[in-house]
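Sequence decides. Consider this:

===
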Amino acid sequence: MNYGEFGGQYVPQELKEKLNEIEEEFEKAKNDDNFKKEYLYYLNQYVGRPSPLYFAKNLSDYSKGAKIYLKREDLNHTGSHKINNALGQILLAKRMNKTHIIAETGAGSHGTAVATVCSLFNIKCSIFMGKEDIKRQMPNVERMKILGAEVIEVKEGKGTLKEAVDAAFNYLLENQDVFYLVGSCVGPSPYPEMVKYFQKIIGEEAKEQILNQEGKLPKAIVACIGGGSNSIGLFTDFIKEKDVDIYGVEAAGKGLNTNQHASAIYNNKIGVLHGMKTYIMQDENGDIREAYSISAGLDYPGIGPEHAYLNSIGRVKYDSITDEEAIESFKLLCRLEGIIPALESSHAIAYAVKIAKNYSKDDSIIVNLSGRGDKDLATILNI
């Protein structure tokens, strides 16, 4: 599927055949009432959906502007939004009689979710994770192992999310009966559309919840973006609501004026990465440049193709938050609301606090609190 000039399937022919098989089964599953019923059963009874939409009064008072609501994806089983997609895709893999699930992970949230559903359905699980991410996300590494997953250390390059995705696609190309459970709305078609389908429950719930609590739509919604799965999950049901401002927050790392950031849209170069055409981090020689963020889930050198399209038509405003701002907001939410957010989500919190004063106190802003931050405590304590 293409999103304007973005997206596509820029992969070898052998891989296209596997992807087309997945797409065909995905289209059948979407129209299968039994598949949808089973998916919703596990979302409700296993994941714990719907996740709450929490009015953060103390944070709102501090921000001196609009009321800030937090979509509490951190309260899902496994502690993030990643379980929504992992559950949907493993049910699809079961339909296809796949016997081995592989996945990439950066912060370890997706890897933990995949290991969890593989344990639930008794399917072999292998997780590719960069050497650098293994060092900084050891609690999630141990969780994956306890759940029965094989964690494969990727030593090439910087050893972060890009290299983990590279390794997973290479393994998929070389092995039969393997299902690659992609964690973000990136990669060749049908993955971006498939991940969106399984994550859009976030925005569907949030819209219903805010209408029940406020009696009107929010003035703005905010989510952080690495590849962009939690954000497209929140955004999808609001895109058609023209009076709702939508903000996607990339990682500015140590500053956009340095080479240590992960803002692909700011970089403003279009190219091909992991089988998709999108905005990418590219150097003067045309090579993929290393992305950097204190958050392991945001240091991806590209962005999902639908996000690239939404930027190109001006429907979503994409901006960025530095490491320093994210750390400050991490601590702020801990102290004001008693909630420990993921460093990824802290970027969105920081941005919401920054823009709240642009709206009236009768307005509301929804922030996707995409994950919990216990995985990031070592990073914070070592600063």
About this structure: Residues 6 and 277 are 5 Å apart (CA to CA). DSSP finds 16 helices and 14 strands in the chain. The mean pLDDT is 96. The chain has two domains: 2-43+81-195, 48-79+200-381.
